[in-house]
Amino acid sequence: MRRRSMLLAAGSAALGTRLGGRAVAAGAGGDPLLDHTVPVDLDGTRYVDLSDRVGAIAPLTTGTVVVTFRTTSHNTAMTLLSASDPAEPSSNITLNLSGGALQFSVREKGAVLVNVMTRTRYDDGLRHTVAVTSGPFGTRLHAGGRTVLETARNPFFGSVPALRALTLGGNLDSDHPGGEWFCTGTVERAAIWGRVLGEAELLAQCPRPDLADLGRISTILNSDTPATWVVTGDSITHGALHTNGWRSYPEHWTERVRWELGKPKNRDFVIDSGVSGATSADLVGAFTELVAAFAPKVVSVMIGTNDIATSGLGPEVYRSHLVSLVRSVRALPGAPVPVLQSPNPVDPAKWPGRVGLSRYAQVMGEVAADLGVVFVDHYNDWLNGGSGPVPLTLLNDGLHPNERGHHRIAVKMIKELRVFEADSRVCSLRVP
Hints:
The protein is of the alpha+beta class and 432 residues long. The protein has 2 domains: 6-206, Jelly Rolls, CATH 2.60.120; 218-428, Rossmann fold (3-Layer(aba) Sandwich), CATH 3.40.50. The protein has helices at 6-9, 54-57, 199-204, 212-222, 235-238, 249-260, 280-285, 287-290, 315-330, 357-371, 378-382, 403-416, 425-428; strands at residues 18-19, 23-25, 34-36, 40-43, 47-49, 63-71, 77-84, 92-98, 101-108, 111-121, 128-135, 138-143, 146-151, 165-168, 171-173, 176-180, 184-193, 228-233, 269-272, 298-302, 337-341, 374-376. The strands form 4 sheets. Strands 2, 3, 4, 6, 11, 12, 13 and 17 form an 8-stranded antiparallel sheet that branches. The two termini are 24 Å apart.
């Protein structure tokens, strides 16, 4: 379970050491006021001191902060960028990770002016570019160039008097003159503008922009507004028989979203409309019954295992059905977000007629890439990138995932949709 005030309560983990860094001064016009472009590796005990540039930043009442980073740990609290009054306790403006979640807080002598935090997480060791924008609209958090959370409150640097310290990787105040909330990982870049960057500009700052659909899913996960998730497919999604009494992957996802992400999300609903024996043709034909009837916000489709064994449903027909399903989802009221999840590999000794399932997984990936859809590639995940043997311990009959296989599918889905938390009961479950 995550704690929304984790950073505000976290203490110093070690004595800080200042590191030098190059902070490039801005030119005129729309250039950043600060652009630190020298990557720095942080070990959780030190920070980068950019305080010589704080004078240009301190007066800002509107603007944008962008940081590109990757983590090498799951520290409770990790500062990305902080400006503070080091002579006072808890007077700071900080963009940080709190239990992996992106958090932005502004405090003046302990009074919290704004404190917002995502449910989506970014301490997975991958390169991320995150941003905060503040303006008349309020405050928005962004990841990969996409808005993921917003609030109407909009305090910014100018809301905290006497800012004299500006740091990467740690926060300074009178109680922690050596620093606190140290980051472990690499900060590649940190930049601050005195204006709000638009979406196209934010995307241009990202070495790895996120899909628009991933941003929309993150917004749904970070919102307290109830959402309906439809998970559809064949017997694997159905979870029939082969889980041996354990949870299926839709049930693991339900527990992660409706319980572990906190009380407001328990008003979300996850509907499993998978039908044993279904093919992509069946999903297209029964789309109203299996998907549209539930007024979803997100629709996950895992299909293909039966297509390969059904006459007339070769890879190209399968492709056309996937395209139809994606378009049908997006055409529903509210334009729900589609997610494509590949079938898992099967035991070739027991199911020689379905060895070619790899081609169906490939086609699904191609459709996802062509249409800008989030793709969860279980096929290659099970094969460790496509070259390993089929992990038979994850299969019940050589084709259907068993309880271990379903948990593997759930964890991959959870990671791809950015709500993985190493110590959650769902994510850390060990199936004997």
